[in-house]
């Protein structure tokens, strides 16, 4: 199947291209087209992953439905037939990878929930005993479950730049004290709800990140949620603390890139066919398990 790396929908106004998504202006709405681009270390790779955009959209829709009792989200419809006529002419491109959403004002932070000590958090803990300024008990093992979910916000970077971890106090300065607390509470509630759903299906969600926006004075959930691009998924059956875990997510690509002599700056290296196909299979498998 053809890999969709970019879209050019003539007659529609392109608002911008993110690392993965092409966003079109529809007045008080936006059309979000999830392409098959893949980024790692904040660099977009030159080749993509077939069907990735469709899998990410499928999972986001699944989780929006599972969390709508906690918080409203920006989704209007993912059915191309229910979208404006100027969109329907591109149904062959848009089908399965597109959401028509409410336009809102995004908050300039990424809201990260960490349930297990891994990745950059594990590196920080080993050197400082803290993660993002949060003091933790001594003696924790790699991949161990935290006593309670950690909230570690980050500043939202432009494409090609690195997100930067910030303290909760810095987040309060960016969005205000009350909003910061509400975003933290929503993040932890959504994560823990999804974590429990996934655990029943044999999947551990080690950590994830969310984005929120404001619509008519109300906080809503936006962007993608709980996908292999934005989360770390582990197999519960294979899990054991005290070592790195085999990820069922974008870590597969990161692990390959770590073997290269590459400075983690653009342009990114082309991914070999076995890594492309392996990534597609991992993304498809996690979606099938979670939706089963």
List the topology elements.
Blueprint: E1 13-17, E2 21-26, E3 29-34, E4 39-40, E5 43-44, H1 52-67, E6 75-77, H2 85-88, H3 91-94, E7 98-102, E8 105-106, E9 109-116, H4 119-128, E10 130-131, E11 134-135, E12 145-151, E13 154-155, E14 164-165, H5 168-175, H6 177-200, E15 203-215, E16 218-222, E17 231-235, H7 251-258, H8 273-291
Helix pairs in contact: 1-8, 5-6
- Number of strand segments: 17
What is the structural class?
alpha+beta
Determine the N-to-C terminus distance: 24 Å
H/E series: EEEEEHEHHEEEHEEEEEHHEEEHH
Classify the fold: give the CATH topology of the largest domain. D-amino Acid Aminotransferase, Chain A, domain 1
Main sheet characteristics: 8 strands, antiparallel
Pick out the low-confidence regions: none
CATH superfamily of the largest domain: ATP-grasp fold, B domain
Shape descriptor: globular
Rg, alpha carbons:
19 Å
Q: Report the CATH C-level class of the largest domain.
A: Alpha Beta
Helical residue percent band: 25-40%
Keywords:
ligase, 26% strand, D-amino Acid Aminotransferase, Chain A, domain 1, five-stranded antiparallel β-sheet, SAICAR_synth, single chain, eight-stranded antiparallel β-sheet, 2 domains, phosphoribosylaminoimidazolesuccinocarboxamide synthase activity, 292 residues, purine biosynthesis
């Amino acid at each position: 199947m053809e890999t969709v790396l970019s879209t050019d929908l003539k007659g529609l106004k392109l608002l911008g291209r993110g690392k993965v998504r092409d966003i079109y202006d529809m007045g008080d709405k936006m059309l979000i087209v999830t392409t098959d681009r893949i980024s790692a270390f904040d660099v977009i790779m030159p080749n993509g992953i077939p069907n990735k955009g469709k899998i990410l959209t499928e999972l986001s829709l699944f989780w929006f439905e599972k969390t709508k009792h906690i918080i409203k989200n920006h989704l209007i419809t993912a059915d191309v037939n229910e979208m404006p006529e100027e969109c329907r002419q591109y149904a062959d491109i848009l089908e399965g990878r597109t959401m028509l959403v409410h336009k809102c004002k995004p908050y300039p932070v990424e809201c990260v929930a960490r349930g297990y000590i891994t990745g950059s958090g594990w590196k920080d803990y080993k050197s400082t005993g803290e993660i993002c300024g949060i003091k933790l008990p001594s003696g924790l093992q790699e991949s161990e479950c935290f006593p309670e979910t950690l909230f570690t916000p980050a500043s939202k970077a432009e494409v090609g730049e690195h997100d930067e971890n910030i303290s909760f106090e810095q987040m309060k300065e960016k969005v205000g004290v009350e909003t910061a607390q509400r975003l933290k509470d929503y993040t932890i509630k959504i994560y823990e709800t999804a974590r429990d759903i996934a655990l029943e299906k044999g999947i551990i969600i080690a950590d994830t990140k969310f984005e929120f926006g404001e619509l008519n004075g109300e906080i809503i959930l936006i962007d993608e949620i709980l996908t292999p691009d934005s989360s770390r998924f582990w197999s519960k059956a294979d899990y054991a603390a005290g070592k790195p875990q085999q990820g069922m997510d974008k870590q597969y690509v990161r692990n390959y890139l770590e073997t290269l002599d590459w400075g983690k700056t653009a342009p990114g290296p082309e991914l070999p066919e076995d890594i492309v196909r392996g990534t597609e299979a991992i993304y498809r498998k996690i979606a099938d398990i979670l939706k089963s």
